[in-house]
């Protein structure tokens, strides 16, 4: 492992919050509404999807804040589940994070970026553009954590400004659509329907990333103090943006034009601004998706690197560069991302990733109860607000969604479970490991 006398760059509150916002705001909010309106036609129910998804994310962030403060080490769910349950469970979550949690969403963001860009400039090859963006951002983050962090703050600030402008323009300039946003009796029944539960997969994917900062715990300045603030502030900002943005989408554009469309932002921009300015906004959205790809390339390799420290079979992934960058792990994640881009469709990857990632966040929040029972005297600089109601609410809503995904989307669910089983086989083949650091 390389060492250097130069101080390692520490991530502050604003950079951490920017990473959370950038991980969350991106592919999902600009693509998933087109899939949701295929099964749900109520304006109220559609907005409730985003409110419920935000509630799940906030309850998750509150729970993760306690775990991050009590066990301040990079690695996220991998570290928590190894300590709470068993190293095998931790390894499986790390395996899923490495193969699905970051590589698949990075591929999804890159694919969406390519489609948005091709809508504006039809001569572009979406797949080639996706690959070029992934390779270029990997090169930036491989050079310097400080450069990558500064790039992240700037492009995320631009993203938030553009989203606020989009919301305002949609409300002021658009022709209102005949869609009711106040509930009637039939709307409440839709909230308990299978279509609502499955649509929560798309919404949960859009909110995924609320836990991004916990993967960088070892690089966060004063993690016990800053991590809970980073998680909560980033998630709250995105919740407000998402509800406002989807209201603007539905308020301004007929559902018939949104149904089944991947480039929802481009469709809405054309509806609100006209074709010429709509093309410009489509280009802006494509550029903003660069922020999402960047944040995942920045955060994901830290999980794989920590796994390399703990497991002999993966020790070749443990070294960092002289600047503290997990270069080998970063290159592995980039290779997996490129495989997803080259072999899978957008919707297949989204449903597959959504199921298996929700499974491990469910286990992690459940671990909050286990940790309090097994280690009641463990120092907890931050305790989950609203405990036990908030984590129980997260578990109830997430568990309900998982059951409906397994029932209504068995193919994608089984692929997700197969990924977990492959990880289990790899764990037992290489279980000659070093003890997990406390």
TrEMBL record:
<feature type="transmembrane region" description="Helical">
    <location>
        <begin position="88"/>
        <end position="116"/>
    </location>
</feature>
<feature type="transmembrane region" description="Helical">
    <location>
        <begin position="413"/>
        <end position="430"/>
    </location>
</feature>
<feature type="transmembrane region" description="Helical">
    <location>
        <begin position="325"/>
        <end position="343"/>
    </location>
</feature>
<dbReference type="InterPro" id="IPR002293">
    <property type="entry name" value="AA/rel_permease1"/>
</dbReference>
<feature type="transmembrane region" description="Helical">
    <location>
        <begin position="128"/>
        <end position="144"/>
    </location>
</feature>
<keyword id="KW-0812">Transmembrane</keyword>
<feature type="transmembrane region" description="Helical">
    <location>
        <begin position="194"/>
        <end position="218"/>
    </location>
</feature>
<keyword id="KW-1133">Transmembrane helix</keyword>
<feature type="transmembrane region" description="Helical">
    <location>
        <begin position="280"/>
        <end position="304"/>
    </location>
</feature>
<feature type="transmembrane region" description="Helical">
    <location>
        <begin position="44"/>
        <end position="67"/>
    </location>
</feature>
<feature type="transmembrane region" description="Helical">
    <location>
        <begin position="12"/>
        <end position="38"/>
    </location>
</feature>
<feature type="transmembrane region" description="Helical">
    <location>
        <begin position="349"/>
        <end position="373"/>
    </location>
</feature>
<dbReference type="GO" id="GO:0016020">
    <property type="term" value="C:membrane"/>
</dbReference>
<feature type="transmembrane region" description="Helical">
    <location>
        <begin position="151"/>
        <end position="174"/>
    </location>
</feature>
<feature type="transmembrane region" description="Helical">
    <location>
        <begin position="385"/>
        <end position="407"/>
    </location>
</feature>
<feature type="transmembrane region" description="Helical">
    <location>
        <begin position="230"/>
        <end position="251"/>
    </location>
</feature>
<dbReference type="GO" id="GO:0015179">
    <property type="term" value="F:L-amino acid transmembrane transporter activity"/>
</dbReference>
<keyword id="KW-0472">Membrane</keyword>
<dbReference type="InterPro" id="IPR050598">
    <property type="entry name" value="AminoAcid_Transporter"/>
</dbReference>
<protein>
    <submittedName>
        <fullName>Amino acid permease</fullName>
    </submittedName>
</protein>
<dbReference type="Pfam" id="PF13520">
    <property type="entry name" value="AA_permease_2"/>
</dbReference>
